[in-house]
Amino acid sequence: ICQKLPETNVGTLVTAIIAMVAIYIVKELNHKFAKKLPMPIPIELITIIISTGISYGVNLNAKFGISVVGNIPSGLKPPVVPNVSYFGQVVGNAFAIAVVGYAICISLGKIFALKHGYKVDSNQELIALGLCNFLGGFFQCFAISCSMSRSLVQESTGGNSQVAGVIASLVILVTILKIGELFRDLPK
């Protein structure tokens, strides 16, 4: 770190410090006024939108050499049959990822089940994860599991039903299909 310190991109450093300070201050305000606010201020989303707008308007990439996300292809890839020749190379890692993903999913499910008074069927969870990953394999998707951070945020903002998950999924789908290209100038 010390050897590379003289090569620091000052523009990137300043951008990162401003973003971190803003996020920290708003997080503290969210925590302090949690009872008075109907929902926490989504500072991460606001930071992304503002930094993308500033980067686009000022052209931070060209003027200060700040690395940006760049071109994001939009749309979904057509389904293809997975390349069977890779199966032998990835079977060990795939098994480990599946076990860890399943364990996290069941653990998180049981935590919420205990908190809200419902039951989690581990067999049903295993079948659902397996089916999702099997179908995702045809669309070149990453292996899926639950997201602790997203689940906790959704639960803390009152999204306790399947409708909240459907709405979040639709927002992600719209982002993948159309909105993703707007983040071309988002600083990394």
From TrEMBL:
Pfam families: Sulfate_transp. One of its GO terms (biological process) is transmembrane transport. Its main location: membrane. The chain crosses the membrane at residues 12-29, 41-58, 94-114, 126-150, 162-180. It comes from the Eukaryota. It is found in: Membrane. One of its GO terms (cellular component) is membrane. Residues 2-188 form the SLC26A/SulP transporter domain. Keywords: Membrane, Transmembrane, Transmembrane helix. It is a multi-pass membrane protein. InterPro entries: SLC26A/SulP_dom, SLC26A/SulP_fam. This is Solute carrier family 26 member 6. It comes from Antrostomus carolinensis (Chuck-will's-widow). The lineage of its organism: Eukaryota, Metazoa, Chordata, Craniata, Vertebrata.
